[in-house]
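Holo prediction — NAP.
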Amino acid sequence: MKIEGSCIVLTGTSSGIGLELAKLLLERGARVLGVSLPGEDSCLSHRNFKEIYIDLSSREGVDKLFEEALKHFEEINAFIANAGIPYYEKLQKADWDHISAIVDINIKSVIYSAMKMKELYPQKTFNFMVTSSIMSYWPLPGYSLYSATKSAVHAFIEGLRLEWEKDQYLQIVFPVATATRFFERAGQPHKSWLIQTPQHVARKMLCGLIKDSKRIYPSLLFEVSYRLAPWALSFYRSREKKILRSYEVNSEQEG
Ligand SMILES: NC(=O)c1ccc[n+]([C@@H]2O[C@H](COP(=O)([O-])OP(=O)(O)OC[C@H]3O[C@@H](n4cnc5c(N)ncnc54)[C@H](OP(=O)(O)O)[C@@H]3O)[C@@H](O)[C@H]2O)c1
């Protein structure tokens, strides 16, 4: 797509990948409507940037976002569903609310937003991009629920691609660990390997938008390893399993 002059809705702009992508899009001449949760602020100031604060984990929240977007823009050329939350945990309890919270923002909000775009523009060209995760292919210990949500949107986009018009570009991004507030928010106390910067991920997303790429892999190392030598990655999984187990032992000892 042509970035200059385009009208883009980008969710999750208060920090991390979304904030870096907003900066790049603005540099390239796009008009960006950014969205975050009430209370957080990206501190990004630009004549072509407007930030609104909406909780997108409900139908009303997403409806409100589209209402605001259509007041602000004559037309939405791209919708980037980047907002999401992680959990780092060993699942032990049947907790409906806990499950619903992550499903609502990571899955339902994304699917509903895609359908809103289709409803608005049944035949027109637009881009719809989702930030999934490498964990949609390759779940890690501590992230079962999170990985399940990212796999769900991955499968949804791949399926939808077979149903929609060819010039309604459905795009999916698979970042590896990225140095944002993600890990603090997830509650993961240890450092991951292969950490990328949010600037790098945002550059790859911008590139993907320009080329209308279907799938965007910010880590070439992961992509190559996963395709050619998936067994090599099992070392990393074993490391993560040991770490998760050690937390349990520690907390039992502390208790
Ligand atoms: N960092 C990684 O290692 C990594 C790896 C793979 C995929 N991802 C995915 O990348 C995306 C961006 O994450 P990030 O790493 O940049 O983390 P981040 O800095 O925590 O950004 C998450 C963004 O989502 C927003 N958000 C969360 N819940 C929301 C809700 N209910 N309504 C509206 N906005 C909401 C947050 O807003 P507030 O700040 O206002 O809460 C924030 O702007 C997420 O979908 C994440 O799952 C991250």
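READOUT: The longest strand covers residues 31-36.
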